[in-house]
Design brief:
Length: 155
């Protein structure tokens, strides 16, 4: 895949994710920037913000481009916190130090760059994520991401 100026910018910003958030214990796995979307596997390890529940490996897909297509799904901005009885419940509100904040940051920096350089670009409003629970699933998704450019070219 030969990346556009916007694609190169997105890729460079994605590669900075771990350095920007050293306190989140992030590992970047397989990823690919496509002409109108982005696939990535990100591992958020145990850290001071998520020690009360098990974190997994997450696959995410974000779509954007000149068309600004707004279809897709999202987990939303929620987090799980234990209450006084050590039971877990969702709490909605402003979020930081989670997947939603990482995606929001990437979308924001790329959108700001597009505006600054006067490029027509808009992310879809939502994104899709999926928690990867097994090594078989991890390898299947890695393969899908690696092969995505080839499938795009054949369209």
């Amino acid at each position: 895949m030969i990346l556009s100026e916007m694609g190169n910018y997105l890729q460079n910003e994605w590669l900075k994710t771990r350095d920007i958030r050293p306190d989140m214990n992030i590992t970047l796995d397989e990823f690919v920037v496509m002409p109108d979307h982005f696939h990535a596997i990100i591992i958020i390890g145990e850290n001071q913000y998520n020690t009360n529940f098990e974190m997994g490996i997450v696959s995410t897909a974000m779509h954007g481009g000149a068309t600004g297509d707004s279809t897709g799904g999202s987990i939303g901005d929620s987090t799980i916190k234990p209450n006084q009885n050590n039971q877990y419940k969702n709490e909605f509100g402003p979020q930081s130090k989670n997947l939603a904040s990482i995606i929001r940051g990437i979308k924001s920096i790329v959108s700001t760059y597009a505006k600054k350089t006067k490029q027509e670009f808009q992310w879809q409003t939502l994104y899709h994520d999926h928690i990867i629970r097994t090594n078989t699933e991890l390898n299947r998704i890695r393969k899908y991401i690696r092969e995505n450019p080839e499938k795009w070219i054949r369209k």
